[in-house]
Amino acid sequence: MISSWRKIRASRHANKRNGLDDLSNMEVSIPNHFRCPISLDLMKDPVTLSTGITYDRHTIETWIEAGNKICPITKQMLSTFEPIPNHTIRKMIQDWCVDNSSYGIERIPTPRIPLSSHQVTEMLSKVVAGCRREEASACQELVGKIKRLVKENERNKRCFVANGTVGVLASTFEAFSKLSFDKNGAVLEEILSCLSLMTPLDGEAKSFLGSNSSLNCMVWFLKSGDLSVQANSVLVLKHVLSSDQKKMEEFSRIEGSLEALVKVIKEPVSPTTTKASLLIVYYMVSTSSSSRVDEKIITRFIDMGLIERLLEMLVDCDKSICEKALGVLDGLCLTTQGREKAYANALTMPVLVKKILRVSDLATEFSVSIVWKLSKNDKREDGGVIVEALRVGAFQKLLLLLQFGCNEKIKDKATELLKLLNLHREKLECIDSMDFKNLKRP
């Protein structure tokens, strides 16, 4: 009798489980007017265009950003590109989600109302007005609000950039920097922090930030600011000084500017900051990025121990830093003093030869160029760096480089180097076979 009761109870439990399984396997049909006409998915943030058709915000904004100026359904020209939130449809979709929650459908959250061009313009007008009245604290508060909204999502960032925020902030930075660094330090820091989130900078912004007062302010931050301010200053300077010879010359004439840059390289704040600093130095010392190179600037960098620091970095660094460090080293070796410092360092040849065919085409190009400069200008009777390069496997690396293929400029240098190395091959020759492990033809 007890056994029969247990069988009945087990049967009832099994029927309940089967009923739940059947219920969970039922397909829920989404009403057509809840689907986005483009993606056909359930709309999470329904918006209506000027043509009266409702779409999901993300989908229609992607359509408009692609350069389309017509409604996808009606093919009519859009009179405005600002979609209007459809709260009625959104509320209906949310109610439908709640009614069908037993089928595993989750209620879509109420979307936050996105930033509009009008709101951005209004905020920027207040920043301009506050700047005219020299109200640093009011401007700082407004810039802080802009920064929070920019960080919130990519759409907000695009809206701010499209409405000229970068230019307004850059002009405000210049205006406050002309007054006093100490007195207006807080608002200047806030503006730099916000600008670093909205790079690359446009021409108007570069003009304001490249002024004498703005450059002096950023150098001041590099020398006396905390780590985050130093990082923001370097990131903004990278965009301001890039390929602008006049601004680079003005920057280099500011007292302590080059020392501040080298300090950031010697005492890294972050990999991003290190890369930005190396890029700025590269613009100053590279013949490829300017019509002429100021040897006085190169000499100052060398006297600060930059060559020694670069060689230490190259022992163990990522691809991007390696390429930039080699580019700077190539520029520094243009001068006799730079080459003498490289000759005197035991790391020079082992590190440079190691980077050939090991990091990237650009790193290989810079490495060959530096070895060529050092070998061609070394007049020591014992062979000097040429013998050292031969000892660490440069001959075999260069042969492989010619076999794999390279541009004509590097090909000529590699060929000339091979001729120089061949003169000393009878003296000694050594190769690290690990350098060629897993090496593949591109």
Task: Describe the secondary-structure layout.
Layout (H helix, E strand, L loop, with lengths): L1 H24 L20 E3 L5 E3 H9 L18 E2 L1 H13 L17 H16 L3 H17 L1 H9 L2 H15 L5 H11 L7 H7 L2 H13 L2 H15 L3 H9 L3 H10 L4 H15 L9 H9 L2 H10 L3 H14 L3 H9 L3 H8 L5 H17 L7 H7 L2 H11 L3 H15 L20
Antiparallel strand pairs: 1-2, 1-3
Helix pairs in contact: 4-5, 4-7, 5-6, 5-8, 7-8, 7-9, 7-10, 8-11, 9-11, 10-11, 10-13, 11-14, 13-14, 14-17, 16-17, 17-20, 19-20, 20-23, 22-23
Summarize the structure.
The chain is an all-alpha fold and about 450 residues long. About 65% of the residues lie in helices and about 0% in strands. It has a three-stranded antiparallel sheet with strand order 2-1-3.
Describe this protein's structure.
The protein has a three-stranded antiparallel sheet with strand order 2-1-3. Residues 1-6, 15-26 and 429-442 have low confidence and may be disordered. By secondary structure, it is mostly helical. Helix 9 packs across helix 11 (227-241). The chain has 23 helices and three strands. It starts with a helix and ends in a 20-residue tail after the last helix. It has helices spanning 2-25, 57-65, 87-99, 117-132, 136-152, 154-162, 165-179, 185-195, 203-209, 212-224, 227-241, 245-253, 257-266, 271-285, 295-303, 306-315, 319-332, 336-344, 348-355, 361-377, 385-391, 394-404, 408-422; strands at 46-48, 54-56, 84-85. The chain is globular. The chain is 64% helix and 2% strand.
